[in-house]
């Protein structure tokens, strides 16, 4: 199972559209995960139309239309991997401990908000992933997104993809 993992797209405020490379990853993926801050509902509709399966949550910049259609926290089991998605997890300091306590029955937690890529493992084995942003690098050198695979109950091949500057 191939995953494309996005967050903090902020369309159309930070960019007019997702980069073509991201759309190619979306179209190759079996599951697309978006950890919030879509900003406008048009991207949700387009991702839903172009994805085999879409799992998404709303973020702090998402208004009432997106909040009606998306949960604050999403849960899914993907080939034996227990996944949760949330937009914000709080400060970086102590994140693993806080998230392990908040998501005790989860194998992988995808989050966003900071626009800072993150890939760590909590003491209880919870894997925390933040794909950064494909459209708004903020203080990062480049925009980013993640891909990964799930097979036989394991998350593998997690790869952070830097995007060329526009």
Automatic annotation (TrEMBL):
Belongs to the metallophosphoesterase superfamily. YfcE family. GO terms for molecular function: hydrolase activity; metal ion binding. It is an enzyme of class 3 (hydrolase). This is Phosphoesterase. Pfam families: Metallophos_2. The keyword Metal-binding applies. Its EC number is 3.1.4.-. Its cofactor is a divalent metal cation. Residues 1-151 form the Calcineurin-like phosphoesterase domain. Keywords: Metal-binding. The keyword Metal-binding applies. It comes from Amycolatopsis bartoniae. It comes from the Bacteria.
């Amino acid at each position: 199972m191939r995953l494309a993992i996005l967050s903090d797209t902020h369309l159309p405020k930070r960019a007019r559209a997702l980069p073509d490379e991201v759309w190619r990853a979306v179209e190759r993926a079996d599951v697309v995960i978006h950890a919030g801050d879509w900003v406008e509902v048009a991207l949700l509709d387009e991702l839903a139309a172009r994805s085999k399966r879409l799992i998404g949550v709303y973020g702090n910049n998402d208004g009432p239309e997106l909040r009606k259609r998306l949960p604050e926290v999403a849960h899914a089991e993907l080939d034996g991997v227990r996944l949760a998605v949330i937009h914000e997890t709080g400060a970086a300091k102590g994140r693993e401990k806080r998230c392990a306590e908040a998501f005790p029955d989860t194998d992988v937690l995808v989050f966003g908000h900071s626009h800072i890529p993150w890939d760590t493992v909590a003491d209880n084995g919870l894997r925390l992933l933040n794909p950064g942003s494909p459209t708004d690098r903020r203080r990062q050198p480049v925009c980013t997104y993640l891909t990964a695979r799930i097979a036989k109950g394991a998350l593998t091949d997690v790869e952070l993809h830097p995007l060329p500057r526009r």
